[in-house]
Automatic annotation (TrEMBL):
Classification via PROSITE patterns: G_GB1_RHD3 (PS51715)
All residue ranges annotated as the GB1/RHD3-type G domain in the record: 41-287
Top-level taxon in the UniProt lineage: Eukaryota
Chain segments annotated as transmembrane: 427-448, 454-472
PANTHER family: GUANYLATE BINDING PROTEIN
Record lineage: Eukaryota, Metazoa, Spiralia, Lophotrochozoa, Platyhelminthes
Similarity remark: Belongs to the TRAFAC class dynamin-like GTPase superfamily. GB1/RHD3 GTPase family.
Family matches, as Gene3D superfamilies: AHSP (1.20.58.420), P-loop containing nucleotide triphosphate hydrolases (3.40.50.300)
Protein name (database record): GB1/RHD3-type G domain-containing protein
Compartments reported by the entry: Endoplasmic reticulum membrane
Pfam families assigned: GBP
Organism, scientific name: Mesocestoides corti
GO terms under cellular component: endoplasmic reticulum membrane
Amino acid sequence: MQSEIARSVQVVSTGEGDKGTSLQLVESALSEVLLNPVIRNKKVVVVSVVGTFRKGKSFLLDFFLRYMYSKDKTNWLGDPNEPLTGFHWRGGADRDTTGIHMWSEVFLVKLSSGEEVAVIFLDTQGSFDCRANMKQSATIFALSTMLSSKEIFNIKDNLQEDYLQHLQFFTEYGRIALEAGYAQTPFQHLEFLVRDWAFAYELPYGTKGGMELLNKRLQVDEHTPKENALLRTHIKSCFADLQCYLMPHPGLIVAGSPTFNGRLADIEPTFIEQLKDYVPHVLSPSNLSVKTINGQPVTCCELLEYFRAYMKIFQSDELPEPVSMYAATAEVNNLNACNRSRNLYVQEMNEVCGPRQPFVSPRMVDAAHIRSQQKALEEFKKAPKMGGEDLAADFEKRLIQEIDTLYENYKMSNQNKNAVEHFKTPMVLLITIFCFYVITGLLDTVGLSAVSNVLLFPFWSLLLALGTWMFVRFTGNGPEIGEHIDRIAQGIADKVSIIYSTFHYYHWHFRTME
């Protein structure tokens, strides 16, 4: 059953001004979903449905939701008289969904590998309706394509040339990425879902007929116009996986009744049979793919950063060129690698001198810094990154600067944990000098001047050490000498502590014997 509080939330809104083309990121709604502590650091699977308006995208997504909520995957369609709920949909000729909507409840699914991932569903505004111009339609389609790990291109009747041409802008983005020297395809899984397929006598419903149709449409021979041949080559090179599925017509009640509410009882049995096959084909754990960019898995919180970066590009005055989209992707890709490496440094340092650790020797902090910085830089260098060596070098410098700042904070925090450390050496030396002064005076009084003269050597040596320590600390010269004096003072303090502990033990022991 669907959660009572789960709902469709708009994460990209459309403007309705004179131009009617403005798009805004609804960051509060997006953050509420993606930064949920339960899922924010989990790898994400993004399933979206795109296509022309009034072709049943939201209707299809609601069957996806019914499958995800069902406890019994063998009978997930449930009661034939139950209305279909989830993303808002309705019949008619005018558009219903605007912008991009996300289902507020994220589904945790265990993949065949045993890893638990977060599955997110996106519903998009239909392309090319009368109230949206080319930029708005292309932007929404592009955002969905760039952010999805599995995208369903919902089309009607047949896989025609104009549908392939709608993808040309996005294949240009892929072409730029490939020419930049990266082996990974820029987009992952695209599936053409051909609705209302009327030629089942030629090609059967389902994946078999769909793949035959797709291979036929993407075939290139000597008679194919050069422009069309290039288009097909680019589409193949830009998607890691291309599939096609043929669906029958759902029936006249679905298409023409204003009171239709999604009940299975009103849908043609042939459509329901294919639905039983198609939805698990898309959503079973073995068929889900984690969202990756340049081969690097994306988490929910990182997906938020990609939303922000892409929206900044698409909000520019001109329809963005593929190179600008690639640059935005490369920058966020390097930023995420930088953040992961910095977090590794913090994790390593926290084990030695973090907020929950007691005061440690400054030498331990220095050693931990060198070791942790090396690990962080190695992590950054081995992470797959887009944008070339120059961009990676800029972010590596940024990482080093951030680490240096963190290192200074760790040193200051460590010293603040024990304020006495600032005064330990002079206090120990002064007390020891005072003790020698008193002892030599008493020895002179009782006539043991020879012994007193012997003790004058450590007295003056300690006095000289105190003066040297103060000179080093105030001038900053000869820090190694200051550290040596610190060790001498620490040794004196340790010996006094041992003597005191021994005396205290025997004193307590004799008192208990009495």
